[in-house]
User: Fold this.
Amino acid sequence: MSQIPSERVPISSLVRTPYIRILTYPKISLRAARSRLAQLNKLGVELLVFEGRSKIGRLGILGIGTVSVVVKSEAGGEVFALKIRRTDANRPRMREEFELTRLANRIGVGAEVVGHTRDLLLLQYLDYVELHAWFKSLKGPERRAMARGIIHRVLNQCRKLDIMGLDHGQLSNLRKHVVVVNNVPYIIDFESASLNRTPKNVTTAAQYILIGGKMSALARLLIGVKSQGPLLAALREYKETKSDVSYAHLLEVLRLSSD
Assistant:
């Protein structure tokens, strides 16, 4: 898919068509737009940059989900990702996602959250590639070591979340929620995260990467896992105990260091 041309728009112009469609997606509301302009000012956002592979109308955006639309933005001369709550979202505010993302940040997981208002969430901007595309791009003699390194880092981040008791909730569709920047993985989008259910981050991520996901056959080949049997057994053991011992055993089965 070709990249949609970029368009830089100061926030004072966002109440106009077609930009108001993004600000109050999916239903245009002048009242909501004015409220969100005030919230943008509060966060120090000066302009939105409409670019990305997704689009609403003719305007490029970074992404669109069931809770928010994600747009590139600028504040104080720096670039950020801005999540704008959909007017039909199943929640009235962005505060919970802010708090849960901030918790993840405290253990070194996720894009850094910068600030929030009722309807907006400002985050570190990541110029990323999706995980499956990163795997497909691997070439040369270092590709196996790089694959091991990225899988190990993803699982270690998931382990940290499991220990904290924070379940991401969307890692079964890991393609959209783990991205790579300069060979470093980031778990993103904590809009469905929860502290009130059993965390399944390690098992869900491992199942996607190594068993049922788009890149699983390639990932297993690169790290040298020939049979799924021992892996499935290690995942069952971890699911039951979530102990340091069972996690170390999982890494051993995957031929990854337990450091």
Notes: The chain has two domains: 4-124, 129-253. The mean pLDDT is 95. The CA atoms of residues 81 and 122 lie 6 Å apart.
